[in-house]
Amino acid sequence: MSFSLTILGNNSAVPAFGRNPTAQVLQLQGEQFLIDCGEGTQLQMAKFKVKKSKISHIFISHMHGDHYLGLMGLLTSMGLLSRKSEIHLHGPALLIDIINLQLEASHTELPYPLIFHPLGDDRVIAETEKITVSSVRVKHGIECWGFIFREKKNPRRLLADKIRSYQVPHAVFETLQQGGDYMTEDGRIIPNTELTEAHEPAKSYAYSADTIFDLSLAEKFKGVDMLYHETTYLKDQETKAGERFHSTTIQAAEIAKRAGVKKLLIGHFSSKYDDLRTFAIEAKSIFENSELALEGTTYWVS
Amino acid sequence: MSFSLTILGNNSAVPAFGRNPTAQVLQLQGEQFLIDCGEGTQLQMAKFKVKKSKISHIFISHMHGDHYLGLMGLLTSMGLLSRKSEIHLHGPALLIDIINLQLEASHTELPYPLIFHPLGDDRVIAETEKITVSSVRVKHGIECWGFIFREKKNPRRLLADKIRSYQVPHAVFETLQQGGDYMTEDGRIIPNTELTEAHEPAKSYAYSADTIFDLSLAEKFKGVDMLYHETTYLKDQETKAGERFHSTTIQAAEIAKRAGVKKLLIGHFSSKYDDLRTFAIEAKSIFENSELALEGTTYWVS
Questions:
Q1: Is B236 a catalytic residue?
Q2: How far apart are CA A210 and CA A251, in angstroms?
């Protein structure tokens, strides 16, 4: 099961040292989800060979420019490339006003349906065949949301050869996938374990967006397989981090530890840092399975 | 006299083949003017070591995204870098509404004065110590303006040693620079040629923005030293160019020839072209001193 995250931008605020503002693409089999869309995202997608056409859902965490200023360019390029399939856009309510004003200014009508869903309370905001996405309010200088992506998976997987040999009808597949037994036409009970095997557990990924250190997030991100938590600053900048509603390495790692996640990715680095190695060292001192989110790198959710 | 143009982006519409949307920086001694500001302009400025802090005036030709979507990021980055000096922004009237809505959405107050000047009729729109800038309406799918930058120069330059030896007072400097003679306190006439020498002629640069082939532009750009004219398409796409309010190589070169400019720079290449060499060949077939506008390259206005 391919479930992966590709980083397109890992920097905060002002681009620096060749690092770009925030954007990342989550891929699950054929489906692609774009999470935040800083300036230059479409250029980064071209550079790292991420296909614009496969993106079906876009999630914008908040209205700071480094998280959404690449969106208008991406949406209009998709239009110029004659996209027809719909895009679901999730973001703060004002986002759609900005998009509409810009479309009006350029006399542009997108050739595909752009379906906007304003963010609000914590809840499931999107669902596809393979994934559900929930929003999680986080504490930042302006309204801001994190997102949790959970793979949808039946507990049991059908064994094709057994299904054939027992001539199990389609109508009972779902029962079997949920763990039920099968009764044949002549009344015999075939136990579930003979017709199915356990799936690997469903995987999950959480994106903290920009947030102050907030222990309640450990509860909300409990047990996800991979957590991306912002670390705008190193640990010696804890006061500044708090004042600016951002987090440090130690704080991000503390959330990961308390949430019991499998892996922590850290990013959203301040423009003041050139060398990022200390970020990894500090995070690992609290939570061993920490890794830097590097642009152009793909991380597997496993 | 340093008067030069640095290309930051030379592509049209959708970024392609590593080429960026339109942006260029005109430099005249210490002054810097940004002309259009496609997505990623601040990243291109960093790459080519153009200092954001030196930009005093920004000119946006029209509201197609490939000409302005980098502006919001640039303006906010200037704010985050604690800029204090004012920026004069010239653009279509709707531009300031889009900026204000985006500032509101991010709860941002710029720490420097942003002075907006809506474009309108053809006229002088900006004047500094060293340059005057005029707007020129061009014909495109939406309202669009080109710009002409003219160096300001007095016809005559003072000869410092002579000014000292005759003890010429400051009050008459301007008269001398304009070609007048000097009468000493005791009534002697010192001819202008003894106190001054001729300046090199003032230089000029014109930017066509996006435009359909329009012969009236040859009159408006008459005699400029360097003309940037868009060439979205090669000559075999003349019909498509016309339908989309763009120009071909041959058409751009024809305007340059009729306007009697010294040098033609061509750019705004369509995303369908990878190899640009044919653009130069076709333009040169009509106007010999034609050159491709290449990203990261500086062209001298001379």
A1: no
A2: 13
